[in-house]
Each structure stands twice: as structure tokens, then as C-alpha cells.
Amino acid sequence: MGLTLNDIVHTASVWVLPVLFAVTLHEAAHGFIAWRLGDPTAYRAGRVTFNPLRHVDPFGTVILPAMLLLASGGKFMFGFAKPVPVNFRALGHPRRDMVLVALAGPGTNILLAVVSALLLHTIQYMPPAFAQWSATNFVNSMWINIVLALFNMIPLPPLDGGRVAVGVLPQPFSSKLAGLERSGFLILLAILFVLPWLGRQIGVNLDILPWVIGEPARALMSAIASVTGVQ
């Protein structure tokens, strides 16, 4: 039986806010740290703000989440915001500060996951109907923030993990990795869509993200739940 309109609306209502906060605060954190470290590019562009409209990317924040919501049967939504502009040459210590700017996004997502877990302690004080809806939002927020943090830490430019790797690896390894910046997005698309499709054609599971992201995400979610006392 297919999804009804009510199913879609309810599922969207418990995913939209977690995804929106996760992707916009991730980007705002990049801009804020870059600004504090000497690069005013994002600040001047109005990107050091909690206003989600300043960070919305038509495809990554609207179209992709909607496609994933429908494709997963209303079980999952994911997205990304418009990347914050950073002039790494304007930073006080470009190589070191690039790492700090890159880590700000995933670090913010982990912080949001912890805050979401702590907010689960408040549902006992809410009306029952609202409590269930809020609890689902908080759990989804934990999950999407953890997944976003881990996904972005894949060591491939232009992802945050790629920039961290470029900043800490010695030459010539860092230069070779930085050279993948322009083709990094195409490589990601191949990993996300082409490899799984190819695997289905030849009868081999080539979908590596459940192993690279899924298993660590479940372990980290369980650890945060345990530390915050919500298990």
C-alpha cells in the first residue's frame, strides 16, 4: 500500500526541522570560525547567521530531501546547504586554520546531536500527542546530525574531511589530495549512485556507505544516548 498524503505530511514534519537545523548550522559554523580566524568573506556575504534562508540550496536543501523522502517510503531524509565561501589565504595561519574551519561544521553537528539527546528528557513534561511528535524530531535530529558529521569527514575534498586531510598530511600527499577538489563531487556521486547501480547489475553489493557511515553512525548514536542518559 502506498503512502497517503497524511503519511507524507507527518513524515516531512518530523524530518524537515532536523535536516534544516543540521545543514544550516553546519554551514554557519564554518563561516563563524573563518570570520573569527581572519577571513570576513562569509560574514560580508551574510552567511554568519542562524537564518536558514541564507543557507538554503535549492537542490540540496529542498529537492534532494524530497526525493529521498519519497524514495525511502517516508523513512529517511538527507540534504545539504549552500557551501559557505571561505578564502583560506585570508586566514591568519592558512594550513592550520583550514583544519579548524573544516572541523567546525561536523563538530557543530555532533554538538546538536548531544543537545537533541538531552532534549529528550523534556518530553515527559509535554502533552502526550505533542510529546511523541517532539521525541521523533529529537531522535531524527540525533541521527541526521551524526550522519552529516560522519559523511562530511570522509577524507575527500571538497568535504570537510578532505580539507582536514589536506591540512595535516605532509607534502606531496596533501597537494595530490587537494588536486581532487574539482573532481571530488563527481567521485561522491559515483560512490552514492553509480557504484550501487553497478552492483545491482552484476549481483554484487557495492553500496559501501552503510559500512562507512551507517555502522559508525549507529555506534555513535548509541554512545551519545548512553552518555546523556536517554537509553
TrEMBL record:
CDD domains with a match to the protein in the record: S2P-M50_like_1
Keywords, comma-separated and alphabetical: Cell membrane, Hydrolase, Membrane, Metal-binding, Metalloprotease, Protease, Transmembrane, Transmembrane helix, Zinc
Organism: Varunaivibrio sulfuroxidans
Record-annotated membrane-spanning stretches: 12-35, 56-78, 98-120, 141-159, 179-198
Domain Peptidase M50 residues, every copy: 130-173
One Pfam family this sequence matches: Peptidase_M50
Protein's recorded name: Zn-dependent protease
Matching InterPro entries: Metallopeptidase_M50B, Peptidase_M50, Rip2-like
Origin organism lineage: Bacteria, Pseudomonadati, Pseudomonadota, Alphaproteobacteria, Rhodospirillales
